[in-house]
Amino acid sequence: MNFQIRKVLKNTRGIIFNLIHPKGNYFRLFIAFWTGMFFRVLLMDFSILAEYILNSKFTYYLSVLLAKISYHIFNLLNVPVISFGKNIALYDAAGVLVDDTCLGYRGVILFAFFIFAYYGHFIKKIIYVLVGFIVLETGNVLRICLLAQIQYCCPEKFHFFHFYLSKFIFYTLIFILWIYWVERYSSKKNVNN
User: Fold this and answer.
1) Planar angle of CA 49, 55, 144, nearest 5 degrees
2) How many CB atoms neighbour CB 58 within 10 A?
3) Which pLDDT does position 129 carry in this prediction?
4) For residue range 125-151, what is the model confidence (pLDDT) as tens digits?
5) Which of 4, 59, 94, 127 fits a 20 to 30 Å CA distance from 149?
6) Spatial separation of the C-alpha atoms in residues 89 and 150, rounded to whole Å
7) Nearest to 117 by CA among 189, 174, 34, 52
8) What distance in Å separates the CA atoms of residue 39 and residue 36, rounded to the nearest whole number?
9) pLDDT at site 16
10) What's the mean pLDDT in 19-40?
11) How far is CA 134 from the centre of its chain?
């Protein structure tokens, strides 16, 4: 019994050491998360910066592009669909609007800081963040298609799928991309190669 208590205390000391020691992985995760949250709030919640980002031509064209890609996916599946600008609708349903805030910028900012906080070559980090952005936006296209289908078949469930399930899936995808980076590219020995 006494041995088990000592073992638990030793493991707890290791976790606490990793939390506060700058070379520990938990410390990197802590720094990455809070730095990402800081910049996420700074860029997306302060009106001056958020208006600049959300009203940019890039954001508008990305919204239209995601709606057009969703339109073409439905066309490939022979589903009658209507697309106009940032809107997409199946049959005669209300449809969905690919709004500027639906592009996943907040998640991408958090993902980027997760990657930049860990070991790895800077160029590889930039490439991985860009690839991650493409993967996340591809997931976003699939989300738009799913939400358009839900809006058509059962609009009463749209709110749940849009605000809860799709965000859970999006952040799970961010987590998987981040874990892949940590396991594949982030070790100290990979940095030296």
Assistant:
1) 110
2) 9
3) 93
4) 999 999 999 999 899 888 888 888 888
5) 59
6) 11
7) 34
8) 5
9) 45
10) 68
11) 10
What is the rounded (10 degree) CA torsion for 143, 38, 113, 171?
Answer: -30
User: Which among 134, 157, 130 is positioned nearest to 146, based on CA atoms?
Assistant: 157
Looking at residue 163, what DSSP letter applies?
Answer: I
Q: Is the pLDDT at 18 greater than 50, yes or no?
A: no
- 96-97 vs 81-84, strand pairing mode: unpaired
Phi-psi region of 149 (alpha: psi -120 to 50; beta: other; left: phi over 0): alpha
User: Which residues are 96's β-sheet partners?
Assistant: 88
Q: Comparing C-alpha atoms, which of 27, 166, 178 is closest to residue 112?
A: 178
Angle between helix 105-116 and 25-45 (nearest 10): 150
Q: From CA 98, how far away is CA 143, in angstroms rounded?
A: 11
CB atoms within 10 A of CB 158: 17
Residue with tokens 């000592």: 6
Per-residue confidence (pLDDT) for residue 9, from 0 to 100 = 45
Could you give the CA distance from residue 86 to residue 69 in angstroms, rounded to a whole number? 11
